[in-house]
Amino acid sequence: MPGFVKRYLEWLQQGVPTGDVVRYPVIGPDYRTNLAGVFIIGDLSGLPLLKFAARQGFEVMETIHRELQSLPPVASPDVLDVVIVGAGAAGLSAALQAKRLGLNYVVLESVRAANTIVNFPKGKLIFAEPMQIANPSELPIRESNREELLAAWQALLDREQLAIREGAEVTDIQRRTDGHWAVMVAGRPAVVARRVVLATGKAGNTRRLGVPGEDLPKVLDRLFSPQDFHDLDILVVGGGDTAVETAVALAEAGNRVTLAYRRSAFSRIKAGNHERIRQLADARRITLLFDTTVVHISETEVELDVGGQRRRFPNALVFAMIGRELPYAFFERIGIAIEKTWTLTRFALYGLAVFIFTSIYFGKHVVASRVLQEGEPVRRYSEWLVPAIIVAGMIGVVYVVYLRLNRGKLDTFRAYVGPTAVLIVTLGASLGALWWMSGQSDANFLWGRHPGFWYSLLYTVTIFIFGLRRMRRKQWDGYIVRQTLSLALIQAVPLFLIPELLPVIARHGWIPAWIEAQAFPHGDYWRWYGFILAYPLFIHNVLTGEPSAFWLVVSVIQTFVLIPGLVYFFGKGAYCGWICSCGALAETLGEDYRTLAPHGERAKRWEHLGQGVLLVIFVLTLGWGLTHWTPAGSWFRTATFGGLSLPVAVEHLRHWYELVIDVGFAGTISLGVYFFYSGRIWCRYGCPLAALMHIYARFTRYRIFADKPKCISCNICTRVCHMGIDVMGYASQGRPMDDVECVRCAACVTSCPMDVLSFGMTGKEHPHDPASRLYQLRRGASVPGSAVTGSQP
After folding, report:
1. Strands (E), 298-371
2. Comparing C-alpha atoms, which of 651, 540, 529 is closest to residue 582?
3. Which of 136, 292, 601, 689 has its CA 20 to 30 A from that of 35?
4. Which own/partner pairs from 65-68 qualify as long-range (CB within 8 Å, at least 24 positions apart)?
5. What is the pLDDT of residue 544?
């Protein structure tokens, strides 16, 4: 990649966090999984706080109690009402409520009750966040340290004598023919119950380094007491809060600590941890090594890759604090659905969705689909398409066989190759069927209405129906209501009703002649869409054989005056999230699928694809202008390059753009993948107007601000962002969110359980903007022109 291109792309995404998301089980209302009668609560649901876990345990038992009351009783005394797997905060809370409700229950715990708290470092502080949320459970959650909380819980257990079986490791859960669940326990008889609650957490599923020597006794994955170690060479691996807290505690205990992190900087640690480790690093009590990975561990030293160079360090202990994983193997074994996991059913539905949306898109204008048959250049494209699909299919089959023989790489197939192969084959089948149909069908059917009418009606009704559902599910939040109504009304009136009524209005002579001649020459009332869908998203008012000064002026004002001003004051989302019809469908129909959006560094790099589409548009516009907007005898209209005239080359480029981008990407693929990769795939990776607004957005004053002390790093804000933004990466740093992809959907703001996030503008006084005077005053910093200094009272 040329240096200037790389610098430009880096400028667009200056230092944006690129954290990924954890794939959690698919959990519906009332903590239900896809398995009827199996529930998931606690850390497995994605909320890491004790108070949330206790609340979930209470609520899930209320739900189960209501369900069982509506069912006939079970005669067998060997069938319990509910089995609770795990005796952490969620499991204990559930057991307490089950006992209060008179349910026949048992708790199966693989180690011991409250094992996660027992494994906390000595003296670790326990916070009762969020303070504004009440704890309905009898399990005490209060501000304390590890020892105080364990004492309170032990006193409760001694008093309540809950039915807890410690040392009971659950290995499988199987559905019996009578509808009950058999919970298999290692070395013990199975336990049968009508309902199962999984509250195991992630404590027993430590991630591995995957390097030689990591099984040595010196390699640990948790710190119990820093005072047990002194004057040792210790390596801490990781870049999260746990790793930083471990490094700080060991350094303060008098050890020589090195912290190795694979990224170039901390992006998700709390502000207090960031400040403390920087202080120790500046005092040379901790050595920070970024862009560093572990290569080998021996008894007396470690080998690290530091920025591409191998280095050896003396070492007595290694703390691998790289996080813990969900028990995916266990979930797969019992059949729990996991987010973004590809199954045979999902492959089939994926192909069906692409086929349906391809048919719908082409069906809106049957004559237009004849582009697949008519015209010599396009005929060559269709003749090329068929063998290309056959070759792609053959390659896909070979790759599937290869992956089957190398099962360790099967996840690669499921994540990338499989969906791509299904997409290519399905799209080819769709286009082939429509190629044949377009030559047989008439342009008018269904009560004499043009197919485009029915397409627009379906599009509009879909937005209204799912928009209403969105507002209701968001509990009529004011921002969501206003945004949804804006999107729905713009789609209904200027993008549906007015274009349908314009021919009627024109027949009555109600449109002035000069307006009709300039804006709608030859009765082209479809040009009205250009008032809402601006260039370069809607190119047909600009790239036309009969250029209109009216539409050239409108497009220039829209694209280079109005939209830049809108983005400057309100962000790119003022258009993408409040006006655009593509955004309207994404925010309504796509609401339930936003957690499927691709995240991480790779997904972020692919967003540059939109800049390539924008470049093609600009090149196409330049060529079109030179060949269509210049005098008939001009050099540009007669010039040839390698035997191909410039007008023909431009025409070919436009056909390719319409086929690949307008039809293939925007019209069919992006809609077909709504239910598999979220509704914003076109907006992120293909929309040329969005790509242009990314440039404008580098200068916007709009931000999402974070009250960073309240952030609990639950990552919900990042999970619900269908633009793939690492919102938590910003929030944990207290950094105003300035990612150019943001469309102001407010999902992160409304989904945050701690009310950390809020909208705002730089240059105004905002309590969470580090650059504002109000922020500095609240934190007691010295502010020019103010007499207030020192610490906050």
Report:
1. 301-306, 309-314, 317-320
2. 529
3. 136
4. 65/101, 65/103, 67/195, 68/103, 68/194, 68/195
5. 81
Q: Is-contact 597 678, C-beta < 8 A? A: yes
Q: What does each C-alpha distance from 212 to 204, 290, 391, 476, 508 come to in angstroms?
A: 22, 21, 42, 55, 83
Q: Using the 8-state DSSP alphabet, how is residue 72 labeled?
A: P
CA proximity to 719, closest of 768, 752, 680 = 752
Contact 330, 338 (CB under 8 A): no
Q: Identify which of 372, 405, 378, 444 has the alpha carbon closest to the alpha carbon of residue 668.
A: 372
Side-chain-side CA neighbours of 563 within 13 Å: the count stands at 30
Instruction: Tell me which H or E stretch contains 649.
Output: helix 646-657
The predicted pLDDT at position 781 comes to 45
Q: Report the pLDDT value the prediction gives residue 575, as an integer from 0 to 100.
A: 96
Which residue in 453, 417, 27 sits closest to 199, CA to CA?
A: 27
pLDDT at 417: 65
Please answer whether residues 426 and 393 qualify as being in contact, where contact means their C-beta atoms are separated by less than 8 angstroms. Answer: no
Which residues of the chain register pLDDT less than 70?
Answer: 1, 203-205, 344, 359, 362-449, 451, 632-634, 636-637, 641-643, 764-793
59 vs 90, 108, 181, 197, CA distance in Å?
Answer: 10, 19, 21, 12
Rg of the chain over all Cα atoms, to the nearest angstrom: 30
- Residue 654 Cα distances to 141, 540, 630, 643, 663, angstroms: 64, 11, 18, 19, 12
As a whole number of angstroms, the distance between CA 495 and CA 454 comes to 13
pLDDT at 370: 46
HSE-up (13 A, CA, CB side) for residue 133: 18
Determine contact, residues 247/226, Cβ cutoff 8 Å: no
**β-strand partners of 235:** 258, 318
Q: In the chain, how long is the greatest CA-to-CA distance? A: 98
Q: Is the peptide bond before 536 cis (omega within 30 degrees of 0)?
A: yes
CA distances from 211 to 208, 287, 298, 315, 453 (A): 8, 22, 11, 16, 61
Q: What is the pLDDT of residues 206-225, one digit of tens each?
A: 788 989 999 999 999 888 88
CB of 629 within 8 A of CB of 655? no
Q: What are phi and psi of 220, to 5 degrees?
A: -120, 155
Phi, psi of 53, deg, nearest 5 = -60, -45
Map residue 759 onto helix, strand or coil: strand
pLDDT recorded at residue 364:
59
CA separation, residue 164 to residues 60, 107, 161, 525 (Å): 18, 5, 8, 73
Buried b (16+ CB within 10 A) or exposed e, 779-791: eebeeeeeeeeee
The residues, ordered by sequence, that sit 6+ positions from 130 with a Cβ below 8 Å of its Cβ are 49, 51, 710, 712, 753, 754
Helices (H) and strands (E) in the chain, counts: 32, 21
CA atoms within 13 A on the CB side of 433: 12
Q: What's the pLDDT score for residue 377?
A: 46
Give 401-405 contacts, CB < 8 A, sequence gap 24+: none
Write the pLDDT tens digit of every residue in 231-283. Answer: 999 999 999 888 999 999 999 999 999 999 998 888 778 777 888 999 999 99
Beta bridge partners of 144: 126
